[in-house]
Each structure stands twice: as C-alpha cells, then as structure tokens.
Amino acid sequence: MPVFKATLRSVRAYITTIIIYFVVFAVFGTMTSRMNAGISDTRYQDVQLEVAVIDNDHSDLSEALTNYIDKTQKLVDNKTEDPQELNDNVRFDIYDYVLVIPEGFSESITADNLEYYSSSDSASGYLMTEKIRTYITDIVVYLGSGYSMDEAISLTDAQTLENETTDVSILNETGTKQSSYLSGMYTFLAYSLLMMLSICIGSVLTYLAENDIRNRIAVSGMSFRSRYIGLISAVLVIGFILTISMTVFTVLTGMEDPTINKIGYYILNEFALMFVGIGIAYFISSISHNTNIINMLSNMLTLSMAFLCGVFVPSELLDKTIVAASHFMPLYWYVQATTYINDHALGQIFSSDFISYLLIQLLFAVIFFVGGLVISRKKEQYAI
Amino acid sequence: MFGRIFIYKFKALIRSHWLIGWNFLFPLVLATAFSLGFGNLIDDDPISFHTMDVGYVAEEDSTFLTVLETLSKSTDEREAVINLHTYNSEKNAKQALADKEIDGYYLLDSEDIHTTVSENGIVSTTLLQIVKDYKNFQTTIKNIAIDHPENLESAVELMGSDLEIIKQHSFGHSNSPYLQYFYALLTMTSLFGSWISTFTLQGMCANMSERGKRFECAPGHKFKAIAAGALAGILIQSASNAVLVIYIVTVLKIDLGLNLGLILLITTLGSALGITAGTFMGALLKKPVLLVAVPMTYAMLCSFFSGLMVASIKQYVQYYVPFLNKINPGAVMSDSLYIASNYGLTREFYQDITIMIVIIIIHIILSGVILRRRNYASI
Fold first, then answer.
1. Mean pLDDT, range A302-321, rounded to an integer
2. CB A280, CB A194: distance < 8 Å
3. CB of B248 within 8 A of CB of B257?
4. Which residue from A269, B68, B253, B274 has the fewest beta carbons nearer than 10 Å?
5. What's the gap in Å between the CA of B220 and the closest CA on chain A?
6. SS3 B100
C-alpha cells in the first residue's frame, strides 16, 4: 500500500502535462471530429459541394444561377472577396468552389466572364464547372432560339429539376461509410492518451527507479511481491483514470451522435490501447531516467506513429508501402479497430476481425514491456 | 564580457543532450514521418481530377454512346474525362465494378439510362452528371422543336459549339497544400527555441538555480549577459532550422517552393521569435517545472494552429477568427512561408515579417522590464 500511495502521489508532479494533453484532446479532437463527421448511407446521394457565390451583377440571370446552385449544392458565406484568401479557402477545404459573377454578366454571357476558384484541377472543381456550364449553355441556347430571358430561366430551372431524378443505384448497397463524431474523437484520442500515459507513467517509473528511492524501498520491510503489486496496481489505476476521463468527455460531447450505441466497443478498444501506452511508458523509462528525454522519446514515438498510422491523415491517403509498414505499429491496429466499429452495424462488430485487432494491440503491449524488461536487466547487468 | 558569456552559453547549450535531441533530432524524425506518410500526396493530390473508368452495356448503338466516346477523347486542355469499357451483359459490367476495374457503368435499355456505381462520392456524382447533361440536351432540343422549330438547327449547332462561359482564376504557379505540414514543422522547430532561452535563463536567475544566485551577485551587466545567451540560442536554433531545411530538400527531396536563402532568412527570424518568447517566459515564470511545460505547450499550441497536425486548421481560423492568425507567432511564420511559396513576396508576406519583428521587439521590451533590477525578498 505505501508503494501504491507513493506512486499515485508522484503523479501530481505531472498534473500540468496531463491537463495540457487533455485540453489538446478536448479542443482539437472535438474540432477536427466535428469538421469531418458525416452520416453513413446505403442509398445513392449526389455529393453536395460547398459553393460560395459572389454576385456583382444582381441581374435576373445571376440570381437564377445563384438559386440553381443554392438548390443543388450548399451555398456558403464567402466572408471575403480577396482573391488570395478565396483561393486559400478552396485549397484548404473551407469551401469547395467559388463562383464570381461579374457586373454586366447578363449582357455578355458568352464573353468568358464568369470566374471560379477551385483547388487547382480538383474533381469537385470539374464537376461544379460542368454543372454551371450546362445551366448557362441552356440559357444561351434558349435565348438564341427566340425565348425571352424569363422563359429561358423558367425552362432551364424546370428541366434541371426534372433531370435530378435520374435513375441510379449503388452496387450491393454498400453505400458510403463516413466517419462519425465518435469515430473521429476516438481516433484523435489515440495521440493524447498515448502521450499522457507514456509521459506520466514513464516519468513516475523513472522517479521510482532513482537509486536513492529504490534503495529506501528495498530496505523497507515490504516483500518484493507486495512492492510490485503496489506499483503495478498504481500504474493501472493511473491508466484507468486517464482512459475513463477521456471517455467521459467523449460521451458527454457525443450524446447526440447516432452511433452512440457503439460506445462499448470504442471503450473496449481504448482500454486495449491503454495497455499499449503503459507498455510504451515502461519501455521508454527503461531507456532513460531523464524526464526530458522521456518527454522527447514519447513525442517522437507517438507523433510519428500518429502520422503514419492514420490518426491525423486517413490511411487511405497514405502510400501503400507506408501502410504496409505501419502494420508493425500498435496504433495502426487501434485505428483499424476504430474504423471497423464505425463501418459496421452494432450486431456485426463483435467478430473475429475485431477481436484480432484487440489481441494484436495487447501483443504489442507485451512486446514493449518485455523490451523494457530486457533493457533494464542489461542496464543492471552492466551497471549503466 | 559579451563574447565570453556568448562562448560559454554556446558550449553549455550544445553539451545539453536532451536539448540538442529536441531541437535537432526530433524535427528530423517528424520530417521523415511526414515524408513517409504523405510525401506522395505532394506530387499527386488525391482530390485531383482523374480519368474515370466507365462501363457501358447496351445491345445497340445510341447517341448516348456517341457522347461517351466524345468524352473518352483527350483534348489539348484536359485529359479524357472517361475511359470507356463496353460490356455485352450487365453481369459482366457488375463483376468489373465489384472487382474495382471500373468506377461505374451505364445500362441503356429502351426506357432509360440506368447508372450503377460502387459508392457515393465525387466520381459517382460526376458519372451521373454526364447522364443529366445528356438528358438536359434532349429536353432543350425537344422544347425548341415544339416552340421554335425554325431555330432548331441553329440551337443544335450552338449546343455543339464550345461556348466560352467560365474560366478558372489563375495565380500561375501553386504548390501542394500538403506542404503546409512542412511549413508548420519549420515553425514548430523555430518555436522550440523557447526551451533554449528558459534553459539559459535558469542559470541567470537567482530564484532558479545556485548558478543563478552566483550570477546575479556578480557585478556584470545583466542585459549584456542575457543578450549573449539569447544570441547563442539563436545561433543554435538557426543551425537546427538550417539542418532541417537541408534535410527536407536534399534527403527527402521535397521542394518547399522557395529558394534556400529566403527559407533560412524566415526561419532565422522564427528562431529569434522562439528565443525571445522563451526569454519572456523565463522572466515571467517562477517555478522551474513550468520552464519546460509552458514553452512546450506554447510551441505545440502555436504549431497546431499553424497546421502541424491538420493542415487546414490555419485557414479555418482565418475564416472564423482571422485576428487569431495575426497574433499567433506560429501562424504568422508558417503563413509567411506559405505566401512566399505560392504568391511570391506580396504585401501579406511583408505584413507577416513585420508582425514577427514586432512580436520579437515586444518580447524583448517586456523581458527587459520584468528582469530589470529584480529583487528577491527570499530565495
């Protein structure tokens, strides 16, 4: 019990670190998860692009074009008319497309006056340009065939609406799997949880491994068994508290997520990661007893893994060789399990695939622990 | 005195292994991770338009097939929109779709054109748009044939012509948005300089260390000593940035879109920013434990908001709270690299550089005010 209490008390020295990483998770995790959250659907749906329209013409035609975009896409506030900022907004996905309708456009429609901004040669840019080109071409053809502007707009709007109901189906109704808020939070959580565990537990283990403290514990009347039971229990309690606190925050902010019924599986996966975090902490603390170096190694290991295993950048965007290499990192399996939970219905999650993801993570935890043990033994052997 | 303190501080800093590890090794490891992770995306952006593989199933030829054949030809301006595969049965087309050989297929029967895709997305929407455009063309011709049959021929001709309606706003050259990660990495490395300063100040403040007590008792000029320490820090931090830039450009073969001299100039200014920020923190903070936690939080927070973990975050801040981007040293520095790389040395670039210089001056003044004639009631 004294070792258990001492270990828990020594964590207080790292309360600032815990708060920092928790705030990073709470703020940035929520932000990025909300930004990327979507709802999976098995029916076909046209992609709705976020389009900003700057109408400097204010004519019937420009308003009709804006209405058409509003009906078929998601019209957003451009907030700026600065060309450079508009370009940056489409490059960094604030919106997908900007259409600038110049003054006098309705009087010279075919003078190549309409201007758009999209991310270089993006597919969304091509699609939106084609939609606008089709709409305006119809107007031009109707006007050239003897219709008035009002008639041309009316006919074009009517046929555009009619053609929206074109027959389409999705193969095997696999649909589209989008990342839910919970999935996004639990993916980002991997970085924060591993950082907190490896720095806090790594530093505490280092502190307890200091010669003076270790010798004082060693000469006490406690048996080897009770000492280590106390230490392991304390480490597990720290791990549980940190893990549960992150889950509580995620649940509180994700109550409205339609996939909240899957939370049990997310928690199960998170606890598997907790053991990986403890394993990494033990491994790093065996390498160095300097808290600054522990901090640095934790950052190097966790940040690199987070980038290579799909925590910050989705795995499907990464190079195939890198994805293959990331199979040798525990975070890859954690992210795989999170994606698996997101992509499957509640009743289908508990499967051999999901269990294997958890077991592989636990295996990595054991590997880190054994690695740490070997380094510690060697250090003791050679009195490093 | 200045020279001697400069040399000793320089020696002390380069002999501090953890500090060298953080400022030299850590950025190199992260740069490697970035390059391995999404170096491929810099050359081939996943959102770029690519020719779509499309299947076509029909028993006889139709005008729709003619449209598809036209779209499958590349032009001087653009690559082919589709790569057409014809199938003699829907079963074969479905199998090809399941095997991911095609992105979707069209089935033409006597009633309609049926489109089948593998999933929702931009490719599927574009495939459907082709059908919508075709049907739209038919409806337009039908309407004109009913209301103004005398103009039908000219209408068909007009629809077939390549009308000049819309053009893309061009800035000339533009780099991949994924380079933002590397700009943010350079920013993070520069701001890590704040650790160097807090480490340096530990040995100069009486309330921080035994060395600090001896230092403050000595009849030396304090400002000169701190300036010498800061200069040693800037030198080391600039060297760290230079190593990182050279590593990215020559070893990782990533073109940052800027000439080496300009990058080094910006990163050196960034180093001065990090060092002076650290001096200010060192002057302000009293607890030794905070001298590591606060600079680290500062560097990581500023770097996150400049796009270290999510490249688009700086632009989101610019969209919703643009003022934050003007006071975040990380965002200002990465913005200067981004603007110089994409738009050249514009007014915004010089504005960023000016803000960096102003922040440096504010840090120096505030540090001077706090450290000047500091008294200790009890140490």
1. 84
2. yes
3. no
4. B253
5. 31
6. coil
Domains, chain B, ranges and CATH? Answer: 2-44+176-371 (no CATH), 52-157 (3.40.190)
Helix (H) / strand (E) containing B54: strand B52-57
On whether the CB atoms of residues A103 and A57 are closer than 8 A, the answer is yes
- β-pair type (B52-57, B82-87): parallel
Given pLDDT bands bounded at 50, 70 and 90, which one contains residue A42? low
Which residues of chain B are modeled with pLDDT < 50?
Answer: none
Residue B209 to residue B203: CA distance in whole angstroms = 6
Contact B154 A145 (CB under 8 A): yes
Domain residue ranges of chain A, discontinuous segments joined by +: 2-39+176-381, 50-167
Which of the four pLDDT bands, split at 50, 70 and 90, describes residue A265? very high
Best of B95, B119, B123, B170 to disrupt the A interface by mutation (most A CBs within 10 Å)?
A: B119
**A218/A215 Cα distance (integer angstroms):** 5
Q: Which of residues 287-346 of B touch A (CB under 8 A)?
A: 289-290, 292-293, 296-297, 300-301, 304, 309-316, 318-319, 339, 343, 346
Locate all alpha helices (DSSP H) within A12-113, ordered by sequence: 15-24, 30-36, 60-72, 83-91
Contact A270, A196 (CB under 8 A): no
Long-range Cβ contacts of A15-19 (<8 Å, 24+ apart): A16/B289, A16/B290, A16/B293, A17/A196, A17/A199, A17/A200, A17/B293, A18/A196, A18/A200, A18/A242
User: pLDDT per residue over A169-193, tens digit each?
Assistant: 887 655 556 778 888 899 989 998 9
Q: Which pTM value belongs to this model? A: 0.84
CB spacing of A89 vs B140 below 8 angstroms? no
| Lookup: tokens for B280 | 């200010």
- Taking CB atoms and an 8 Å cutoff, what residues of chain B touch A13? 289
Upper half-sphere CA count for residue B216 (Cβ side, 13 Å): 19
What was the pLDDT predicted at A38? 65
Q: Which residue has the higher pLDDT, B119 or A66?
A: A66
Is B177 in CB contact (< 8 Å) with chain A? yes
* Widest pairwise Cα distance in chain B: 102
Out of 3.40.190, 2.60.40, 3.40.30, 3.30.40, the CATH code matching A50-167 is 3.40.190
Q: How far is B118 from chain A (nearest CA, A)?
A: 5
Q: Tens digit of pLDDT for each residue in B169-212?
A: 888 777 888 899 999 999 999 998 888 888 888 878 877 788 88
Q: Which pLDDT score is estimated for A39? A: 59
In chain B, residues with a C-beta closer than 8 Å to the C-beta of A35 are 316
Query: Are A119 and B94 a contacting pair at CB < 8 A?
Result: no
Kindly give, in sequence order, each residue whose CB lies less than 8 Å from that of residue B229, ignoring residues fewer than 6 positions away: B5, B6, B9, B197, B200, B201, B204
